[in-house]
């Protein structure tokens, strides 16, 4: 049958659609209701913070979009919004369930802020119940009561594509055939089945909303962030939404060349998704060069209706950006198309934990034990969504101490728990994981082991046949089996931190380390090992420690990188970082004896110096008396240039420079800034830096931050005249509003749950976690 109105899509399957809204938590349900009001009623909606609000769960302030003739269901304001959620699939809303609400409503009406009362619920509402609820609300003084039940929400979801794009978890809550046409259904079904767990636990973050808006408005988005922060999950949900909203054919390309080859000018609606566009673990210059060459074709595809999503680790994109010739690619200048997905609010973290625990296999009693400590789990640093996934699975939590400290450690120090867990696995499972660890590109699941792999199995004590069977049994918990475009199928760790945990286990298996080291490529060596002494680890033990007996072997491999690659390449940069941060003094001196020209490779660094590895290594060599004075002074001069040309404040704030600089060096740098920068500061702010720095989209404007650091430094040095000149430039930035201040939203939004009194509205997101399990 066909349904029209409100931007509806074609319903394929018979019957009224019904989404499993009871499987959502109360907070996720509230967010869905907010999305309904934003996308369907066209109102600006903001989640109302849980606080003691004297009985007012939510209210609208501002101009309500007046209903058109076709939208006569829209009420007149001012109004109060209320969400009622139940985890029972067959619950029916009754008047008695709302008894706590009616006294609040009377107070709100008396205060003149409740002309209309809108109740949204996922429960069923009978005709008799709706009439009784409306009568009670009218008796409280409400002029326009409106009761919208779970079926209304399901119908609205099925009817509104824009809503589904901004609330994409609904794709995992119902029968796709009831909301998508044939072509879209096939595309979306394939995508959902390929990652059903990701769909069912996905949380709409601010980063996702920005990405979806960019895709709608611009047809392009670049997702940036550190490893394992959700770039690929966001790209997946955008792909599903594109199949729904525009009927897009999904193409997951590996390179720009493959994207161009597969673009069909006669196929208007195509969705292209390229993961790790500029390199997987390091910047690969040939990939960036290909993008430079192919960008005109890519932009032609976008102008003709294609949608393009790229992902990249932030540090890789920062290396690629200078080569992209952004002047020829205006989109990369625009904040709207570049989205950093790394940062998550506390509320988003809590929802991620909630969703993974709801989707996991923990029994209700275990969830009840965990509930008091889950807010602390969300505050753990660093926060990894993958740790939340494991928290929901019994396979990972057998030895978990259900305390605040125990759960926080589980979230922020997963390698220690995993190391203990790996020790409890049988020998053949350990051998299977060791084989995957020694295969950076994934272990081919043809299971035709070479001699080195057989040696690994034998040294652990396993057998070839049993290890082969263990590989398959570990899929879903520790491993995943993936099929690439070229048809190659391979086993890999399900998440990078599972690999790190295995490294923690390997540290206590010294007989395996030499053969594991031989199996690593250079990138894996630099990224996943260290040569520090026990107790010196800065990475909390997640990397594989190389014993002193193998230092010379590692030094020879690093020296070969310096011989093979020019200064400034990603390889030498990674090697410098390794020597500066991942090597003991013994290893560093051993390398210097093997490669005495090292200091000459450390003085050609670029801004921002805080992001460069050279100063750390220079400071270490200086402390050891191994840095010639000529190279130290060359580094000081370079810092002076950057302090003036780029407002680089590292010489003031960074610890390595405090160790490298003498008092006379600092006076030299102060004088450089005073004489070469300050006279042209205001003009430079207006012209050179404003366009490139102001619109970076960061939480704190980097230019203003640098000026504040300089101002404080000159003030502390007693140079008040220079300090006042810097303050004048800062005032220009603020007075001319070059730094934007976000405007507030117009709607406050509230919630309470069926059968749960909400006199204390500071309700935990996890309060209903163990209900209905």
TrEMBL record:
It comes from the Bacteria. InterPro entries: nSTAND3, P-loop_NTPase. It comes from Streptomyces massasporeus. Pfam families: nSTAND3. This is Novel STAND NTPase 3 domain-containing protein. Residues 202-358 form the Novel STAND NTPase domain.
């Amino acid at each position: 049958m066909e349904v029209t109105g409100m931007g509806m899509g074609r319903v394929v399957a018979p019957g009224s659609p019904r989404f499993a809204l009871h499987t959502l938590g109360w907070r996720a349900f509230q967010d869905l209701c907010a999305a309904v009001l934003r996308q369907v009623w066209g109102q600006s909606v903001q989640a109302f913070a849980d606080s003691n609000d004297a009985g007012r769960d939510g209210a609208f302030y501002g101009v309500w979009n007046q209903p058109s003739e076709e939208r006569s269901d829209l009420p007149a304001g001012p109004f109060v919004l209320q969400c009622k959620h139940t985890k029972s699939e067959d619950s029916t809303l009754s008047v008695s369930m709302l008894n706590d609400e009616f006294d609040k409503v009377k107070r709100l009406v008396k205060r003149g802020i409740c002309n209309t009362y809108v109740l949204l619920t996922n429960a069923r509402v009978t005709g008799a119940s709706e009439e009784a609820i409306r009568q009670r609300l009218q008796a409280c003084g409400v002029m326009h009561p409106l009761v919208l039940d779970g079926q209304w929400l399901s119908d609205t979801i099925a009817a509104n594509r824009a809503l589904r794009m901004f609330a994409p978890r609904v794709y995992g809550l119902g029968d796709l055939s009831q909301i998508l046409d044939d072509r879209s259904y096939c595309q979306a079904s394939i995508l959902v089945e390929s990652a059903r767990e990701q769909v069912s636990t996905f949380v709409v973050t601010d980063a996702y909303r920005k990405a979806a808006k960019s895709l709608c408005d611009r047809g392009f988005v670049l997702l940036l962030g550190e490893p394992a922060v959700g770039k690929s999950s966001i790209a997946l949900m955008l792909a599903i939404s594109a199949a729904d909203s525009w009927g897009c054919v999904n193409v997951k390309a590996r390179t720009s060349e493959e994207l161009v080859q597969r673009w069909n000018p006669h196929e208007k609606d195509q969705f292209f998704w390229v993961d790790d566009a500029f390199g997987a673990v390091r910047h690969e210059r040939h990939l960036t060069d290909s993008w430079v060459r192919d960008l005109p074709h890519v932009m032609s595809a976008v102008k003709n209706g294609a949608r393009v999503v790229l992902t990249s680790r932030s540090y890789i994109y920062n290396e690629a950006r200078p080569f992209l010739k952004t002047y020829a690619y205006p989109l990369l200048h625009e904040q709207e198309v570049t989205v950093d997905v790394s940062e998550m609010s506390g509320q988003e973290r809590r929802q991620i934990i909630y969703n993974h625990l709801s989707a996991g296999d923990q029994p209700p009693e275990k969830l009840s034990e965990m509930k008091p400590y889950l807010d602390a789990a969300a505050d753990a640093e660093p926060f990894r969504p993958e740790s939340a996934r494991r928290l929901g699975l019994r396979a990972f939590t057998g030895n978990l101490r259900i305390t605040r400290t125990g759960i926080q450690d589980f979230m922020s120090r997963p390698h220690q728990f995993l190391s203990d867990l790996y020790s409890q696995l049988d020998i053949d499972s350990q051998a299977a994981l060791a084989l995957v660890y020694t295969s950076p590109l994934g272990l081919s699941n043809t299971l035709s082991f070479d001699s080195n792999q057989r040696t690994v199995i034998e040294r652990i004590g396993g057998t070839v046949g049993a290890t082969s069977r263990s590989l398959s049994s570990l899929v879903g918990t520790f491993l995943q089996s993936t099929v690439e475009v070229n048809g190659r199928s391979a086993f890999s760790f399900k998440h990078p931190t599972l690999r790190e945990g295995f490294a923690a286990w390997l540290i206590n298996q010294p007989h395996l380390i030499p053969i594991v080291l031989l199996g690593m490529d250079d990138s894996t060596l630099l990224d996943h090992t260290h040569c520090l002494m026990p107790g010196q680890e800065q990475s909390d033990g997640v990397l594989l420690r190389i014993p002193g007996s193998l230092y010379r072997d590692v030094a020879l491999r690093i020296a070969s990188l310096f011989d093979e690659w020019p200064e400034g390449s990603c390889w030498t940069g990674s090697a410098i970082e390794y020597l500066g941060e991942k090597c003991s003094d013994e290893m560093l001196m051993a390398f210097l004896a093997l490669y005495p020209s090292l200091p000459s490779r450390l003085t050609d660094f670029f801004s921002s110096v805080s992001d460069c590895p050279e100063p750390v290594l220079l400071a270490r060599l200086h402390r050891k008396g191994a840095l010639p004075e000529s190279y130290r002074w060359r580094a000081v001069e370079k810092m002076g240039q950057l302090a003036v040309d780029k407002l680089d404040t590292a010489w003031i704030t960074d610890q390595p420079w405090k160790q490298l600089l003498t008092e006379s060096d600092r006076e030299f740098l102060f004088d450089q800034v005073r004489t070469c920068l300050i006279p042209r500061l205001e003009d430079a702010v207006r012209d050179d830096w404003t366009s490139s720095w102001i619109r970076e989209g960061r939480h704190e404007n980097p230019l203003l931050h640098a000026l504040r650091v300089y101002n404080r430094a000159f003030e502390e040095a007693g140079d008040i005249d220079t300090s006042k000149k810097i303050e004048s430039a800062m005032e220009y930035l603020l007075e001319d509003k070059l730094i934007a201040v976000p405007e507030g939203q117009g709607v406050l939004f509230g919630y309470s749950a069926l059968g749960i009194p909400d006199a204390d509205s500071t309700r935990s997101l996890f309060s209903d976690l163990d209900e209905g399990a």
